[in-house]
Amino acid sequence: MDASVFVEGALRNLDAIVEETTPRVLQQSDEEALHDLRVAIRRMRVLLKVARPIYTKFYANAVREPFTAFHRATSALRDEEVLEEILASIAVKDAAFERYKKMRKRRERRLRKDIIARIELGQVTHARRKLAALIELPVKPKRRVELTTFAREVVLEAQKSVEKLRDVPVTDVEGLHELRIAYKNLRYTAEIFADGLPIDLSALADPAKRMQTLLGDLHDVDVAIATVQKARSLSPGVSARIVRSLRRMRAKRVRDYTEASGYNRLAS
After folding, report:
1. By CB distance 3.0 to 4.6 Å, which of 35, 87, 208, 264 could disulfide with 186?
2. Is 19:44 a contact under the CB 8 Å cutoff?
3. In this structure, are residues 66 and 16 in contact, taking their beta carbons and an 8 Å threshold?
């Protein structure tokens, strides 16, 4: 099969999910709707990125950008929801801390309203129209390549990105964040192109998903620490107590990550 034919089909399938989930988000009665929409758009962004050799970088990026803008807004909401869960687990009794958590809850509501407004203003529809136009463009013959060749190249490239960052120290917050993104790209490329891959490369999806999750959990705590440290409404003493609890949580998540990382390294 030609890679462009496969990519077109995968993009159409993801677009169908976006079409189906967007009204569910607007109804605000389905807790999984926004998650499903975020995952579909996240996969689409990864696919559009690796499909640049097929559609050209210019056209692929032109379609990717409006999806990215919407995805960033949903990510801000997701991050706020996770932050609330983390802060709720901190056993620090303080009136200012309680007020701070209520303030975060108000921010979460504003972010949710922003998502609804973006959909109602047609941001998702605009992105989908651009995608439809891209899919209709004819692919130049010189850009056509067999699926098995293309799939192998994109997964090996994603694996190479992971290998470059795999030894980043656990103290390097930004480096760990970049490693998480690299694992995410490896996972999604291996999952999306599984039918065109040899078994050894398609098998990379599960461990990449595991590492992405562990690094995501670690990143959530790092974001919580940075957010609390910037909170002006908390006294230095209360902020320090919260951060100590968060650092204990981080140490546990670091252990989970390093144990899994060592296992994956031995397995590879």
Report:
1. 208
2. no
3. no
Tokens of 133: 């136009």
Question: Exposure of 110 by Cβ count < 10 A (0-12 exposed, 13-18 middle, 19+ buried)?
Answer: exposed
Vertex 8: Cα angle to 153 and 148 (nearest 5)? 30
**Helix, strand, or coil (residue 31):** coil
DSSP three-state, residue 168: coil
Measured CA to CA, the distance from residue 249 to residue 266 in angstroms comes to 26
Contact 218, 250 (CB under 8 A): yes
* Phi and psi torsions of 2, nearest 5°: -75, 135
Asked if 215 contacts 180 with a C-beta cutoff of 8 angstroms, the reply is yes
Cα 147 from Cα 50, distance rounded (Å): 13
Is this prediction's pTM over 0.85?
A: yes
The structure tokens listed for 146 are: 């067999």
CA dist., res. 76 & res. 232, Å (int): 20
pLDDT of 228-252, one tens digit each? 999 988 999 999 999 999 999 999 9
Q: Which residue has the tokens 């398609």?
A: 202
Distance from C-alpha of 260 to C-alpha of 248, rounded to nearest angstrom: 19
- pLDDT tens column, 40-98: 999 999 999 999 999 999 999 999 999 999 999 999 999 999 999 999 999 888 899 99
3-state DSSP assignment of residue 146: strand
175-212 residue pLDDT tens: 999 999 999 999 999 999 999 999 999 999 999 999 99
